[in-house]
Amino acid sequence: MVEWRQIKDSKGLYEISNIGDIRRIGGRILKPAYSRGYKFCRVTIGDRTKYKTFRHHREVAMAFIPNPSNKPCVNHKDGDKLNNFVGNLEWVTEKENSQHAVRYGLISTIGEKHPMHKLSVGQVKCIREIFKRGDVSQTELAKTYSVGLSTIGDIVRRRKWKNI
Known about the structure:
Blueprint: E1 4-6, E2 14-17, E3 22-24, E4 33-35, E5 38-44, E6 51-55, H1 56-64, E7 73-76, E8 89-92, H2 94-103, H3 121-133, H4 138-145, H5 149-156
Antiparallel strand pairs: 1-2, 2-3, 4-5, 5-6, 7-8
Helix pairs in contact: 4-5
C-alpha cells in the first residue's frame, strides 16, 4: 500500500511516497528528471523565483527511515539508483557507501575502470616496456605521462596495474 508523507523542506506543499514518488499535496505525481542516474524533482517553493530540488531517494529515507546514528548518505541496497522503494534504502556512512559500490561492482578499483585512473592499459604496457629496455629513467617516464614518480615505480614493480 502506498503511504504519503510531507516533505520537510517543502513548506507544506509537497509529499513523498514510500515507493519514491513526489506530488504536490493532493495533486498529481510529478514527472522526475534524472542526474547521474538518480531521480530528482525541481519544484517552486513560495514565489515563482525560488526553487528547491528534491532527490527522491533522500526524501524517502528522511520521511520513512529512522537515522539514529545521523549517517549522511542514503544507499540503494540493490545498487539500482532508480529503485527508491523504502525497503531498498538505508542510511550509511560515506565509507560504507563506497564499500557497497565496490562489493556490488558499481565502481571498480582496478585499472581503467577505477574512477581516479590517469593511464590507459596501453600506456601502462608501454611504460613497462620502455623501462625494461632501460632507455628512460622513471623520473622521465613520470614527466612524460604526467604522473608521480611513485606511480611509475609501482607500475614497473607491479604493485599497481597488477592485472596487466
